[in-house]
């Protein structure tokens, strides 16, 4: 097992087995996608929870962007006007962008803290851009054709955490769960869709529009959301509407695309997902996650390439130097407003 | 270790949707900004100061000013207004008409990228 690091997985995570702490019980799209891409990438990023320092801002940025929409929807459902709800969400966003220093003083979070000067210059994810994107998005969709579903408890179906039994029992006797978070569930006419928000630095308009949305069919995340929407809400869900925001230097623009799923496609996804999880179970039993070295150069280069390219004996030293631990836990609930 | 897959069961959420909700509006699904190449990064200055100080000192006026600034900026974009940087780039661009009937070498010279010997 020379390829493994000596780092033990985080025992406290609810999504992992109590019997074999390397065995993931609750699976979300991030974990499934990671394993499909490369079992070794899955081991490092999900089982062990390593994340490159220079990419650590993406998660917080995304959470803040999603939360802004959630706060807005809750305020609209409470009867607030667009401007009132917008202001409420911006104050909440301000709070989310604040870091408290050791001396108790408060400063704006610096998303570029771990980026080189050159990368920071090119990176568009600034606090100003986040506020701009939220204001422009909510202004643009003030009179949205999509109507957020009202749950039976009266709350809007936004940032909806889900978990349900997927129909498989691990060797430990524990039941596999499919879990995750739906950004929003909405009606378009009388059809129900999951709405998923995406941010991107690349253009989503003009000639490349088809290309941007085409990558979501097929796509495990979108299939999983459609499947989960049907199970959890007990209603037919026709697919996912992707609410894409292009964040650029000086402007943001938005576009929507569809990622539809048929019953047959969803059955296929369910079957394939079980196969992936069974493979991951075998890896967890063996304590070995193979490297898929044909994926290292995809998507602009794997985030773990800097580790896997080193001799196994020195990998852990590089992990501790250039990566931070942020254990992924698919059972962590969102939507607690 | 492995078992036959069974259909998914037991949704944990009791928050089923109210299926009586229907959308009636007929607004366009996507309302894009006009296709203009812009870079307004230089115009952030007036609002950047807000993001430089103590975030907890923001007051309602600051927030309102920021929202107004962002909305005004968007109106300018919608109107197709270009930033000083984009205007400068446009001014430096050689009109197409002027390029008709000239050789590649002439073109390079016109663009300041080469010289005729």
Could you describe the 3D structure shown?
The complex is a heterodimer of chains A (337) and B (117). With 337 residues, chain A is α+β, with helices and mostly antiparallel strands. Chain A has 11 helices and 11 strands. In chain A, the strands form 3 sheets. In chain A, strands 1, 5, 6, 7, 8, 9 and 10 form a 7-stranded mixed β-sheet that branches. A two-stranded antiparallel sheet of chain A has the order 2-11. In chain A, strand 7 and strand 8 (191-200) form a beta hairpin. Chain A is globular, with a radius of gyration of 21 Å. The termini of chain A are far apart. Chain B has 117 residues and is mainly α. Chain B has helices at 45-48, 60-78, 84-92, 104-110; one strand at residues 9-11. Chain B starts with 8 loop residues before the first strand and ends in a 7-residue tail after the last helix. Classes of the chains: A alpha+beta (337), B mainly alpha (117). The interface between A and B is large, with 71 and 55 residues.
Strand content of chain B: under 5%
How confident overall, as mean pLDDT of chain B? 61
Largest sheet of chain A, described in full?
Answer: 7 strands, mixed
Count the helices of chain A. How many? 11
Give the DSSP E fraction of chain A (strand runs of 2 or more residues): 15-25%
The total beta strand count of chain A reads: 11
In terms of structural class, how would the helical and strand content of chain B be classed? mainly alpha
Shape of chain B: elongated
What is the largest interface, and how many residues per chain? A-B, 71 and 55 residues
Order of helices and strands of chain A: EHHEHHEEHHEEEEHHEEHHHE
Secondary-structure element series of chain B:
EHHHH
Q: Number of helical segments of chain B?
A: 4
Distance between the termini of chain B: 80 Å
Task: Specify the oligomeric state.
Answer: heterodimer
Give helix % range of chain A.
Answer: 25-40%
Spatial extent as radius of gyration of chain B: 28 Å
């Amino acid at each position: 097992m020379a390829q493994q690091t000596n780092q033990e997985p985080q025992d406290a995570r609810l999504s992992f087995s109590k019997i074999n702490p390397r065995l993931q019980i609750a699976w979300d799209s991030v974990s499934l996608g990671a394993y499909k891409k490369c079992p070794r990438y899955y081991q490092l990023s999900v089982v062990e929870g390593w994340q490159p320092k220079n990419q650590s801002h993406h998660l917080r940025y995304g959470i803040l962007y999603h939360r802004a929409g959630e706060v807005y929807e809750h305020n609209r459902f409470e009867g607030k006007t667009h401007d009132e709800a917008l202001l409420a969400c911006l104050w909440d966003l301000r709070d989310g962008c604040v870091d408290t220093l050791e001396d108790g003083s408060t400063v704006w979070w610096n998303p570029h803290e771990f980026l080189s000067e050159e990368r920071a210059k090119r990176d568009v994810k600034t606090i100003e851009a986040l506020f701009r994107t939220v204001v422009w998005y909510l202004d643009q969709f003030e009179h949205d054709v999509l109507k957020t579903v009202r749950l039976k408890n009266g709350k809007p179906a936004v940032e909806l955490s889900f978990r349900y039994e997927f129909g498989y029992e691990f060797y430990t006797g524990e039941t596999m769960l499919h879990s995750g978070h739906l950004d929003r569930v909405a009606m378009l006419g009388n059809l129900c869709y999951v709405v998923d928000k995406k941010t991107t630095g690349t253009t989503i308009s003009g000639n490349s529009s088809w290309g941007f949305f085409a990558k979501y069919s097929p796509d495990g995340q979108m299939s999983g959301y459609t499947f989960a929407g049907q199970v959890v809400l007990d209603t037919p869900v026709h697919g996912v509407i992707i609410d894409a925001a292009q964040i650029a230097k000086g402007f943001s623009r938005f576009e929507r695309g569809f990622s539809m799923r048929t019953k047959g496609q969803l059955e296929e996804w369910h079957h394939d997902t079980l196969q992936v999880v069974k493979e991951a179970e075998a890896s967890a039993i063996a304590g070995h996650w193979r490297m898929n070295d044909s994926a290292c150069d995809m998507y602009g280069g794997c985030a773990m390439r800097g580790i896997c390219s080193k001799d196994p004996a020195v990998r852990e030293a590089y992990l501790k130097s250039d990566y931070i631990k942020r254990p992924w836990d698919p059972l962590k609930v969102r939507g607690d407003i | 270790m492995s078992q036959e897959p069974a259909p998914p069961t037991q949704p944990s959420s009791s928050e089923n949707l109210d299926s009586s909700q229907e959308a009636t509006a007929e607004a366009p699904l996507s309302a894009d900004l006009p296709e203009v190449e812009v870079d307004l990064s230089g115009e952030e200055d007036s609002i950047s100061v807000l993001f430089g100080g103590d975030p907890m000192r923001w007051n309602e006026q600051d927030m309102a000013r920021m929202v107004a600034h962002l909305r005004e900026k968007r109106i300018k974009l919608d109107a197709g207004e270009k930033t000083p940087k984009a205007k400068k780039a446009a001014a430096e661009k050689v009109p197409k008409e002027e390029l008709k009937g000239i050789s590649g070498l002439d073109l390079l010279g016109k663009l300041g990228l080469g010289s005729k010997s």
